Amino acid sequence: MTEPTNKVLILTYYWPPASGPGVQRFLKFCKYLPVFGWKPYVVTVENGTYSSVDATLAQDIPASVSVVKTKTAEPFTIYNRLTGTKKNSGTVGMINMDSKQSLLKQASVYVRANFFVPDARKGWNKHAYAAAKELIRKENIETIITTGPPQSTHLIGLKLKKDLGVKWIADFRDPWTTVYYNDMLPRTDATKLRDKKLEDKVLKAADKVVVVSDGLKDEFADRNSDISVIYNGFDEHDMAYIPWEDKNKKFIIASIGNFKPNQNIHTLWQVLAELKEENEEFSHFVKISLTGNIDNTVMSSFEKFGIESMLEINDYVPHMEATKRMMIADLLLFIVPQTPRNHLIITGKLFEYIASRTPIFSVGPVTGNAAQILEKAQRARMIDYNNKSELKRILREHFNKWQASDKPVNHPESGLWEFSRKGLTEKLADQLNELNVKKESD
Fold it and tell me: Hey, which of 3, 9, 91, 264 has its CA 20 to 30 A from 278?
């Protein structure tokens, strides 16, 4: 492959050894951008605060990608000391951030919510800006991409555009001011107003905006007219399908990834408890396997409904092991967080779930963006959180099908290209090419 002639600088806080969907998105874009004529440069943080790490992801960074890591100054070191967590760890989606906290911890959360706007990682900005400015001048880079969360990263793009006149794409993996966990933080009205002004400024100044869902596009449409939807996706190299000849000894219902308090759906656990009472074999053969950062309330709920013997909790695992667990499970549990505006949520793991060929048991808003993706992929429909009879019927149906089969039950592969990382990178390259044309015509 010839050396790409176009250059793009990507500013991303999340990069290996950090793990999770935020890392995967631009790690995979950087992997495939050279195929479409773009050479990526990356500015990221050194020794950042992450909820989980996966050193194996570094193997996916092409040798041709130049990566610059900078210092940072963040409050998490002090915050973690006060809350008794690991030095370089960070919370995700308010996991284990319950209300039963000491006054010191509550004060720490208040400071975090109101003194670090838009987020607690903004201490990275001055270091990232300096590194980006030097790289832009040295390599004659004319186009940049910022990706958030953390949304403070977009403020670096705003300053670079103002100071250097670069073309700028702002990529949003989540909402900004309306993200669900903001409702769980003790933010003052003044903080909310300040945050909204920053969001407006970024959206209006960016040359292009890229988002992960149609709902997010609709939310931002009043502040930018050039918004494209580029989903998260799956990398076919991570999902090499292996036919499993022998079915599992137990019916494994698996969830791979973070499990937040707003995914702790009591109606579903009640259904499991009832099926356990009604069917002795269900009680004996079903295993609920959760892998990742699991909120403490989950075990409490299972104990409350008397189904704790069915639960298995596993620590975070490397990405290739995570995708393997998706493929060897009998049923994948996909729960859209139960929050306001959750019809906009499309979590990154959904696409790997689809590519795994394992049946998916989905719970969430039946007309939301995730439900539409499932329909596009010809997968089973989303079930509403409170539709107890349907939850029970479908779960029983999957278990009965597993019992009756001599081999694992897999979904046929079809229509996956539009969700592949390579196909999605082509869409990002199209956006970059449009900026190139616009730059040359200016």
Answer: 264
